[in-house]
Every structure is written in structure tokens, then in C-alpha cells.
């Protein structure tokens, strides 16, 4: 029965992380400031408090709150949280879903990759994995030499028959091609895509022009997104300011200030619903949900 399988699966996740020394935490779903995640749209919520109206935001991930905990308590932590993202729909997307997020003190993204391999061995019995850089994946699956020049990228997309608008910038062009790459990843074995271009670093540490960041794909589906955390508050401010100005959203100054006390660490998130879908051998989120079925 689906209910029993979900219960078993969630307990497997909790047992894995508790067994590796993580503390489970719980953080607010409603935030005073939105998550500033590139290509993710936060959902504002109008509330009343003491008779006064104010706007809060449903979390798109528990990242900001969990990093504030890291700054204060400096412990390995994990959470299975409900998160919300606007305008998400289809076979693999939902407005509301479960996210597993965790942070390891004193670790880097390579540690997380190995940790996820252990988790996948326990859940699925996988023995073999692939690790490939973003540039290698573009070359292997599209025959595109990924560079920083926007004109060259447009020429490559045009040559491959990938549609784009002339006014689109490098990042949008990248993701138009990336859609074609990711659907080819992780079929023979789970694939860790790593070494992202610096401009796609999110809040990952950058070294040698590449972000210490990875994503996990299984059967063409993105499952995990993790990185070595950037802990310099001024660098975090610079990146968040760029995103906030681009989208006209406010910045959580308390989150930035927390980086003065966040120890060196690495963090990762996993889409729990997608992973569970694969664990029970299904192909769409509709197949594992009791509510909120969507037309495909």
C-alpha cells in the first residue's frame, strides 16, 4: 500500500542521516523574506498580525533558516520540509512538495557526493555511478563546446536546432541547451553533474572559475542539488543583491549576517517526492500522490 511504502521510505531517510550524526531540525514555512533562488518563483502570502496586514513568503527551501541554525549551533543538521514554488506543474513539478535538506560541518561537495552514493546504495542497491563536469556533458551529449561567449553559444544552439530569442542572455541560453543535456543523464547509472560555470554558482564557493557545485540525475530526472557553501558574507551579499535587483525582491539581512558565524560546510537538497517516485518504480508524481493530481 502506498501509505506504508511512504512511511517506510521516510523512515529510511531519517535512519540514514541520524546514523551519520545529523540532528533533525524544524524551521518556519512562512518567512519574512523570500528565498532568492535563480529560476525559482517564491509565493507571497498576505496575513494579518495584530490587525495589521503584512506580506510573508512561503519557503522555496529551508536553506535560509537552516543556515541561521548552523551559525548559532554549529552541528550537522537535516530536515524533511514542505516547500512551495510558484508556477510549477507537470509530470515532475508541483507547487508544494517535500524537500530533504542537510548540512555537514567541515565537509565539501565531494563529501556530499560520496554520502549520496551511500544513500543510493541503501535505497536502490546501486553499485556504479558516473561523475561528469558540465562542460564534458555538453560536449558528450550535444557536441557543444561550452564557453563564456554569448555569440558563440547562440551559434551552437542554432546549429543544434535549439530555439531561442535573440535578446536572451547567456544564462537563459545555457538553460535552453541544458534541458537537452539533463534528459540524457543518469540512465545507465546515477550521474553526478559537477563543476558548474561560475555564473551559475548560486551560493557555492568558486575556485578556478568553477563552482564547487553538483546536481544528481537518475533516468533524466534531477534529484539533488548541492555545493560547498560560500561563507564570506560580502560575497553572499553581492550575489543576493544581483538576484534581488533582477527580480525586485527584498533581501534577508539577517541571513547575510549569519555568514559571519557559519563554519566551513557543505549543503544539499533532494526532491523527496521524485526520489520516492523512483523508489516505487513510478514515472509521474501523479502515481504517488493521494491528492493534487494534475493533468499531464
Write a structural description.
This protein has a domain of 138 residues: Bira Bifunctional Protein, Domain 2 (BirA Bifunctional Protein, domain 2, 2-Layer Sandwich). The model has no long low-confidence stretch (mean pLDDT 96). β3 and β4 form a beta hairpin. It is an alpha+beta fold and 296 residues long. α4 crosses α6 and α5 runs parallel beside α6. Strands 1, 5, 6, 7, 8, 9, 10, 11 and 12 form a 9-stranded mixed beta sheet that branches. It has a 3-stranded antiparallel beta sheet with strand order 2-4-3, with no helix packed on it.
List key phrases describing it.
globular, 12 strands, nine-stranded mixed sheet, 296 residues, three-stranded antiparallel sheet, BirA Bifunctional Protein, domain 2
- Count of helix runs: 9
Mean pLDDT: 96
Distance between the termini: 24 Å
CATH architecture of the domain at 1-106 and 265-296: 2-Layer Sandwich
Secondary-structure-based class equals alpha+beta
Number of strands: 12
Spell out the helices and strands N to C: HEEEEHEEHEHHHEEEEHHEH
Provide the CATH topology of the domain at 1-106 and 265-296.
BirA Bifunctional Protein, domain 2
Radius of gyration: 19 Å
Low-confidence stretches are none
Large-scale geometry: globular
The major beta sheet can be summarized as: 9 strands, mixed
**What proportion of the residues form beta strands (DSSP E)?**
15-25%
Fold topology:
Layout: H1 2-19, E1 23-24, E2 30-31, E3 43-49, E4 52-58, H2 63-73, E5 77-84, E6 96-105, H3 109-124, E7 130-133, H4 134-142, H5 150-159, H6 170-182, E8 191-197, E9 206-207, E10 210-218, E11 221-228, H7 233-247, H8 253-258, E12 265-271, H9 272-279
Parallel strand pairs: 1-5, 7-8
Antiparallel strand pairs: 2-4, 3-4, 5-6, 6-12, 8-10, 9-10, 10-11, 11-12
Amino acid at each position: 500500500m502506498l501509505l506504508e511504502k511512504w512511511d517506510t521510505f521516510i523512515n529510511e531517510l531519517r535512519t540514514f542521516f541520524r546514523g551519520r550524526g545529523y540532528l533533525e531540525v524544524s524551521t518556519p514555512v512562512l518567512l519574512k523574506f523570500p528565498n532568492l533562488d535563480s529560476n525559482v518563483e517564491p509565493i507571497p502570502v498576505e496575513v494579518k498580525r495584530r490587525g495589521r496586514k503584512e506580506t510573508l513568503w512561503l519557503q522555496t527551501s529551508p536553506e535560509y533558516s537552516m543556515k541561521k541554525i548552523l551559525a548559532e549551533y554549529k552541528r550537522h543538521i537535516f530536515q524533511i520540509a514542505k516547500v512551495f514554488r510558484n508556477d510549477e506543474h507537470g509530470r515532475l513539478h508541483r507547487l508544494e512538495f517535500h524537500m530533504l535538506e542537510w548540512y555537514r560541518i567541515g565537509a565539501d561537495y565531494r563529501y556530499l557526493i560520496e554520502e549520496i552514493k551511500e544513500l543510493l546504495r541503501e535505497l536502490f542497491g546501486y553499485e556504479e555511478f558516473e561523475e561528469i563536469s558540465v562542460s564534458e556533458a555538453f560536449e558528450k551529449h550535444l557536441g557543444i563546446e561550452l564557453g563564456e561567449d554569448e555569440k558563440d553559444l547562440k551559434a551552437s544552439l542554432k546549429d543544434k536546432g535549439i530555439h531561442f530569442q535573440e535578446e536572451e542572455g547567456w544564462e537563459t541560453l545555457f538553460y535552453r541547451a541544458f534541458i537537452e543535456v539533463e534528459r540524457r543523464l543518469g540512465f545507465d547509472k546515477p550521474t553526478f553533474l559537477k563543476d558548474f560555470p561560475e555564473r551559475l554558482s548560486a551560493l557555492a564557493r568558486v575556485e578556478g572559475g568553477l563552482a564547487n557545485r553538483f546536481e544528481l540525475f537518475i533516468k533524466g530526472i534531477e534529484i539533488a542539488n548541492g555545493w560547498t557553501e560560500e561563507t564570506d558574507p560580502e560575497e553572499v551579499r553581492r550575489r543576493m543583491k544581483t538576484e534581488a535587483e533582477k527580480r525586485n525582491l527584498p533581501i534577508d539581512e539577517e541571513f547575510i549576517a549569519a555568514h559571519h558565524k557559519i563554519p566551513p560546510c557543505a549543503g544539499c537538497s533532494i526532491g523527496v517526492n521524485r526520489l520516492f517516485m523512483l523508489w516505487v518504480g513510478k514515472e509521474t508524481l501523479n502515481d504517488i500522490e493521494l491528492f493534487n493530481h494534475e493533468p499531464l
